[in-house]
Amino acid sequence: MADNKDHFTSLYLKLLTPAKTLRRREFTYAGYSYGEVFELAAGIKKMFSERSGGKNLCLATENKAVIAACILAALNGSCQLILPYSFSAQALQEMYNTVGFNTAIADRPEEMPDGVEIITPVAGKISDIDPEEIRPPDAPFLRLFTGGSTGKPKVWSKSPRNLLAEAFYLKEKFALSEKDLFVSTVPPYHIYGLLFSVLVPFVAHAKVFPDIYIFPQEIISTINKHKATVLISVPVHYRALKAGNFSTPSLKVAFSSSGALDRADGLHFYKKTGLGIAEIYGSTETGGIATRSVRENSDSWQPFDILKWKLIDGRLAVQSAFTSPEMSSDADGFCLTGDDARPDKDNRFVLRGRVDGIVKVAGKRVDLSYVQNKIKELPGVRESVVLPLTAGKGRDMIIAAVVACDLKDTQLRKLLLEKLEPYAVPRRIKVVSTIKFTATGKIDRRQLENIFTDGKY
What pLDDT is stored for residue 455 in this prediction? Predict the structure, then answer.
């Protein structure tokens, strides 16, 4: 699809030209119809056509129908979209300083920087969405921020081809259709949530629950009560489900992303439901790259057949229609990812860890993911995070670990000395009752670093 411009353009036009029968179908369960989403898109388009100033619109909202409408309006050339990684006043101010925006749709308007106009979408005429006014397929129209667990926020752009090619591909690959009902535990303003709980159901003409479910019982009860067929979740929520006894006979596919799924959690879900969770590997800047399932009994990843991959000095590189324009590429169009990998049979690959997960301690290389996995193997350890810290005022690094367990730090050190070289044993260890996760199931590393600087968590 990525190499066939005519085919992509036809899909693009089809998306912006809803059939009359589609207009009456529900997009959000017991909420907005597809027709109402298009009406909102038309209203947003008209609003920006009458503005003489900037046309950057920040989407600080969890309303999936409104997000879908804004994407349609932006695809039709009305505005440029900005998706934040957080709705906090600090994060929004940081984004405002970085890219600037003068309008926003906000669930919490009080957090917005001064001078930003908060707008409320109103319905317009669907006929105002003119397919002849489509934005060029490779022109960036949306900017996403990554932050929280990754340090200083970065900005990545997406073109219509980046997002729509991936959404249409996922729809076909996993046989998703208008008969499906999506349940999500992740917010729609991150790339994983945006794709899987807004764009994929939209191009499949399916329904999606407007709410975000977090607690195990509400996830299971919602699926069973309404016979949901697709679950969009993250490893931390699958781990929470492991504590309960459940069945979900209506589910046909369960997705996981935003980190590696613990094999034991995946096996438990497989035993209870008969479904091997479809793990999705990728990033904001690369888009989706590969998938795997615990039922395959393999740690290797199967690349999406729409892209090509190769290794450059042991580092994974991809040639894909999903990659952000800011990513640099070689002469053949391959972009380097942030992961080391090795080839496996059947055109699969095994990830060996983040490139930036290697640090030098006392002149020796230490793989932080390897240390973290060794800690997780210890009896009584529920979760662990290993991170590098600067030693004093110098440039030397030390290893620190935050561990959720009932052991004492001295006990942990003794056990780790049996598994690791002395230089690889974390010099600083903090034992906690639980490790907090962000809304997308990631770990806020900056917050964990605060434990070792000011003792707060």
Answer: 65
Strand partners, 155: 145
Buried b or exposed e, range 346-366, using 16+ CB within 10 angstroms? eebbebbbeeebbbebeeeeb
Amino acid letter, residue 60: A
322 Cβ contact list (under 8 Å, min separation 6):
2, 162, 165, 166, 282, 286, 287, 288, 307
Contacts of 206 (CB under 8 A, 6+ apart): 176, 177, 178, 179, 180, 181, 182, 200, 230
SS3 state of residue 313: coil
Distance from C-alpha of 274 to C-alpha of 240, rounded to nearest angstrom: 18
Nearest Cα neighbor of 80 from 108, 106, 99, 98 is: 99
Helices 368-376 and 409-417: crossing angle in degrees, nearest 10, is 110
Find out whether 306 and 298 touch, Cβ atoms under 8 Å. Answer: no
Mean pLDDT by 10 residues, the chain (457 residues): 64 88 95 97 95 88 98 95 90 88 95 95 94 91 70 81 96 98 95 97 98 95 97 94 89 93 92 96 95 92 97 95 95 93 95 76 76 92 88 66 93 92 91 85 79 73
The SS3 call for residue 82 is strand
Round to whole Å and give the CA distance between 78 and 186.
28
The Cα angle at residue 257 between residues 313 and 365, in degrees rounded to 5: 35
DSSP code, position 115: T
